[in-house]
Amino acid sequence: MTKIAVLVGSLRKESYTRKVAKNVIDLFPSGYDPEIIPIDDLPLYNQDFDDENTLPEEWTTFREKMKQCDAVLFVTPEYNRSVPGILKNAIDVGSRPMADSVWKKKPAGIISNSPKNLSGFGANHHLRQSLVFLDMPIVQQPEVYLANITTLLDENGKINNESTIQFLQTFVDTFIDLIGRYEKA
Ligand code: FNR
């Protein structure tokens, strides 16, 4: 079973981003186990905790969980043209100690969304910048920017049109192909 960690960049109860993540989870075939990993309990990153080995239990649990995953799917809204702090904090927590980063060589996919026209482009690319530094191979094409997300979801949080579903399926298939290439490497 290939385990995919799904990290969602919003804590909002009715988050569109989480709804998108759940739709995408449903598009993975059997043999893949995508799971939303909670990041809301992670204390803010503080280098002292690593340097003095006084690690919050939540960090250790998160790092262990992430190490067991084969790949990571990031689904994010945009905050102030960038990555929401909650998601950046999880990335920072997982990145240290540097030699033991949970991200290194882990295939990644990025989906951004927004209720507005710009589709979270800024968040998507700031996230991409961090993942390049963290040495994660990333799905390059198709890039997934979901603009006007409220028009794409029905009242049950399901994507309401076949062309978006097909597009996301193409993205998932490409992500799986990338994961397969790294599993074999
Ligand atoms: C936003 N929002 C927003 N939207 C956008 O397209 N670009 C942006 O830069 C921002 N900036 C921003 C900052 C902060 C602090 C908040 C709270 C919101 C609006 C945002 O896209 C909207 O609230 C979404 O609904 C957030 O995603 P979830 O929570 O629905 O997943």
Account of the protein in words:
The protein is α/β, with parallel strands linked by helices. The protein has one domain (2-184): Rossmann fold, CATH 3.40.50. 39% of the residues lie in helices and 15% in strands. It has 6 helices and 5 strands. The chain has helices at 16-25, 47-51, 57-67, 85-95, 121-133, 162-184, and strands spanning 2-8, 32-36, 71-76, 108-113, 144-146. Strands 2-1-3-4-5 form a 5-stranded parallel β-sheet, sandwiched between helices. Helix 4 links the parallel strand 3 (71-76) and strand 4. The protein is globular, with a radius of gyration of 16 Å. The two termini are 17 Å apart. Ligand FNR binds at residues 10, 12, 15-17, 77-81, 114-116, 118, 120.
Q: Can you give me a brief rundown of this structure?
A:
The protein has 185 residues and is α/β, with parallel strands linked by helices. It has six helices and five strands. It has helices spanning 16-25, 47-51, 57-67, 85-95, 121-133, 162-184, and strands at 2-8, 32-36, 71-76, 108-113, 144-146.
List the helices and strands and how they pair.
Elements: E1 2-8, H1 16-25, E2 32-36, H2 47-51, H3 57-67, E3 71-76, H4 85-95, E4 108-113, H5 121-133, E5 144-146, H6 162-184
The structure holds ligand FNR.
